[in-house]
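Usage example:
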Amino acid sequence: MTDPLPHTLRSDAMDNRERILDAARALFSTQGLNVPMREIARRAGVGPATLYRRFPTKQMLVTEAFADQMRACRAIVDEGCVDPDPWRGLCLVIEKICELHARDRGFTEAFMSAFPGVTDIAAGREYTLKSVAGLAHRAKEAGRLRPDFVLDDLILMLMANKGIHATTTTTRVMASRRFAGFVIQAFQASDQHSPLPPTAWPASAEAEEGGG
Amino acid sequence: MTDPLPHTLRSDAMDNRERILDAARALFSTQGLNVPMREIARRAGVGPATLYRRFPTKQMLVTEAFADQMRACRAIVDEGCVDPDPWRGLCLVIEKICELHARDRGFTEAFMSAFPGVTDIAAGREYTLKSVAGLAHRAKEAGRLRPDFVLDDLILMLMANKGIHATTTTTRVMASRRFAGFVIQAFQASDQHSPLPPTAWPASAEAEEGGG
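Running the assembly step on the lines above writes:
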């Protein structure tokens, strides 16, 4: 009551930050990470100076925009990895990661792209892939995951999941859930399987093989 | 030899037509069907007047740009439908359609969108879906296609196939082939299957059910 002005300012500043992050997420999701900073400022309804004061670099903006999603992603793989049944853990990871990405297509963009300098996301991706590799290894040993699965197949399915369009997020998430159900069936070990066409990224499959 | 000028003109006109169609396919593939006509003219290196003389409407341009792909698509479903083994026929359709779409992402855009007035593509899509519905029905009766498959699952997989990105067409086609392999495993009837999450488009699934 004695100090309304600073309070208002702080609150405005907070609003600006959220407005910028919302605008960034919306634009990253439709136009990719290369959308110009000035377009993000325009959409957020702030001046470029305000944008740059809050987020001096695009890298910082990308990192902040997807900090929650990256945390959620790490939590999902952790949850999958502690499951004593590695196949059930892997299924949980596939279902939840597909849904997370379906809710925010900009996050897939950030997660998949090697956007230079966004070290938090690169570290999160590395953590995710390393954890899933361990889980997949155990699920194969348990005879539940098909032996010809390679880690790039998960990336392939995340790209594919991003292709699913719908007029609303609710419908997209629903479609993505059904898609994840199909992915799980496709990854499941079975006597009925025909051999798969080779992976498109054989170099990384070999590296994976060599790394155990 | 006696009439070199008309020949040259005809040849230029032919070049223009091909240049416009190439430009249109390239832009439709990256920016969707709503890309402005003037941008297509600019990329083709022709004036707007030349573009509109050849293709008075966007609809005519879309139809012409994807006439070959639409013919190929119809030929693929015809080939699948005449196979005495409906499941083998359906697998062939999935593999070849995924590859066709991986080679030209603009075609997926045209095939999926209900771009108004492009009657040839709408007719081609209807033909494709109707043929595949018949094939799927027979593959279910033969016990090879999972009974909870609905036609929208094919659309879902075509959308997903479009999400697969790669730096070259060759790599994208390769990735898409592996993807199609997974789709076939996922669609195959099996005792090991868990129930799938419901389809995101229940209305059309019901219509399909009702239509036999």
